[in-house]
Each structure stands twice: as structure tokens, then as C-alpha cells.
Amino acid sequence: DAEITQSPRHKITETGRQVTLACHQTWNHNNMFWYRQDLGHGLRLIHYSYGVQDTNKGEVSDGYSVSRSNTEDLPLTLESAASSQTSVYFCASSESKSGVNEQFFGPGTRLTVL
Amino acid sequence: KQEVTQIPAALSVPEGENLVLNCSFTDSAIYNLQWFRQDPGKGLTSLLLIQSSQREQTSGRLNASLDKSSGRSTLYIAASQPGDSATYLCAVNLDSWGKLQFGAGTQVVVTP
Q1: pLDDT in tens, B24-61
Q2: C-beta separation of A101 from B93 below 8 A
């Protein structure tokens, strides 16, 4: 069955370190998204990609970057981790061609920045 | 800017009662609306997607309605069960490419 996997599932890091969260989907979807979920803020869009070599900033993109070198993967990099980036991160994907655009989510990565 | 609101934030019902969850949005120019379920510590599971041209969508005990003109969607869960306990999130799709704007969710507890 097609799925989205995220790794690691849990990560503890220190302030100032660079961290990369992996996202891999086997749906063959062209669209991929990164969200963060925080109490009091709900889910907010960080970055998104509509295809290989395409990346776009979302609502809360400062301090984050992504790159899309193939269809399956969209890694999220925290350039210099800050305590404010402690959160649960979700990757999602969808496909636009059918016009339905239902979005599917991975299991999440819980990141703690000390 | 599109804002999505879910009221109430939390809801507790006895088993067997029907659940009614509300979602409102400020801009009626949406592409579609999606309802998700989230269990504690887990990811989001897609329940139903309603296209902007549709009025409702059904899957088993779940029925979702959409009234674009009034900026409202309602998720009905018939004959609730303890296994329905979870947080339910609605999200509006802002364009044909898939960017979602989420509500804060309604936390549901179904007591045996």
C-alpha cells in the first residue's frame, strides 16, 4: 500500500544545531507539504512543493528550508535550531491531476530543541 | 486571510448519541474541504473530502455537509462509539494545488 513515512519519529537536539527531518512518499504524488502542529496554533504550513525542483514558502517558513530533487522525498532542514521550533512536524502529499487533491499525512516527527 | 473556526473545542457524549461537529470559514472561495481524524500522538487520517460543487459526502456512519455561501461545514457521526474518541479537524483547500488552512479541532470523548 502507498504511504508516507517520516524519520526520525522523535528527535532531541540542541539550540544552534542543524537538523534534517526526512519525508518519503510512495503515492507518486506531485504535491508535498510540511506542517508544524503546536498547542494554541493548530497546524500551520511551513513549506510546500508542487513538483521536482519546485519549492515555496508557507505561513511560518523562517528558519526552515526544503529541497525537492525527486518525486518521493521532501526533506525539511532547520538551519540553526531554536527552542521555538520545538513542535510536532507533519509531512503530507496530494495529487492535483485528478482535480480531487485529497491530502494524506505521515505519522509525524516530534522535535525537541533544548 | 482565510480563517477556519471549529466550535466547540471539546465535546463529551454518551455512547450511541449522534455527534455534530461544526466548521466555519470566512472566505467562501474554497476549492474543497477535508475532514480529518487525529488520535493522540498520531498523524491525521483523512475521513471525507467535499468538493466545492458538492453539498454533502457520506462514508459509513459519517456524513459531511458543505454550505459555501454561509461558510459552514458540518460533520455528523451517527451512533457514536468509544472508538470515535479523537480530535476532529477540518481544513479548507485554498486552491487547486492543495494548500490547506486548518481549524484548531474539536476533541471528542465518547463515554461507554
Answers
A1: 999 998 989 999 999 998 999 999 999 999 999 999 99
A2: yes
